[in-house]
Specification:
8 helices; mainly alpha; 0% strand; 77% helix
């Protein structure tokens, strides 16, 4: 119960922050800068712990991953900023964040309730039932957003496919950071958020799911699906 409260609190904080970002651009800019810097620092901490040997090849790989992560966090921030400032697209950004939050909460609730087989060795705490829950809970958003959404797709099932793919990307992002933590032999990416771990622990799925969701949404509109 304590862990689910943490996740709900984190989700609520992200939603409020996103809402304020819609109203006040300076909050959006400051938030994106802080999120990118903190996440980059925590990510680099994992990379540094993984590549500990003083070998030229390993040092090069360390530099490569740090540079790649810097570019990625910059592009992520740009995509969020560009989406929110577009009046016809900011609603989708909000939708994507909600899908990620519901996916995270759904995975935790189903995993703790039904338990069962482990999903992968990468993250021992993740179960197949939890993964199923990550797909199911975000589906409750579809009737609401199908009514409110400014874009009407030809098929209601398009939103279902969209939610499934975004949730899948969210889980992949979560597993990727879990993989790095396992390699670095650490439980959390940091201790910035007491009781939560690092900032990257809370937004790992969002970092992958939101950019993919943005491109997927544009693609579906272009093909008129």
């Amino acid at each position: 119960m304590k862990e689910i409260n943490k996740r709900i609190l984190t989700g609520f904080f992200l939603i409020v922050l996103l809402y304020l970002s819609f109203l006040y651009p300076f909050i959006l800019i400051i938030s994106l800068i802080l999120i990118s810097i903190i996440s980059w620092i925590e990510f680099n901490g994992l990379i540094s712990k993984i590549f500990t040997k003083n070998i030229i090849k390993i040092n090069f790989l360390k530099f490569f991953f740090k540079l790649l992560s810097l570019i990625y966090f910059f592009l992520f921030s740009f995509l969020i900023f560009d989406g929110i400032v577009q009046s016809d697209f900011n609603f989708i950004i909000f939708y994507l964040f909600l899908i990620c939050i519901f996916s995270d909460i759904g995975g935790f609730i189903f995993g703790k309730t039904f338990k069962g087989k482990k999903l992968t060795k990468i993250s021992p705490n993740k179960t197949i039932s939890g993964s199923v829950g990550s797909f199911i809970l975000p589906l409750v958003l579809i009737p609401i957003f199908n009514y409110l959404i400014p874009v009407n797709f030809d098929s209601f099932y398009t939103l279902i496919i969209f939610v499934f793919l975004v949730s899948f990307a969210c889980q992949l992002g979560d597993l990727f950071i879990s993989f790095l933590k396992r390699k670095a032999r650490v439980k959390d990416t940091g201790d910035l958020l007491p009781g939560h771990g690092g900032f990257l622990d809370r937004i790992d799925g969002i970092l992958l799911a939101v950019p993919i969701g943005i491109f997927l949404w544009k693609f579906l509109l272009e093909i008129g699906f």
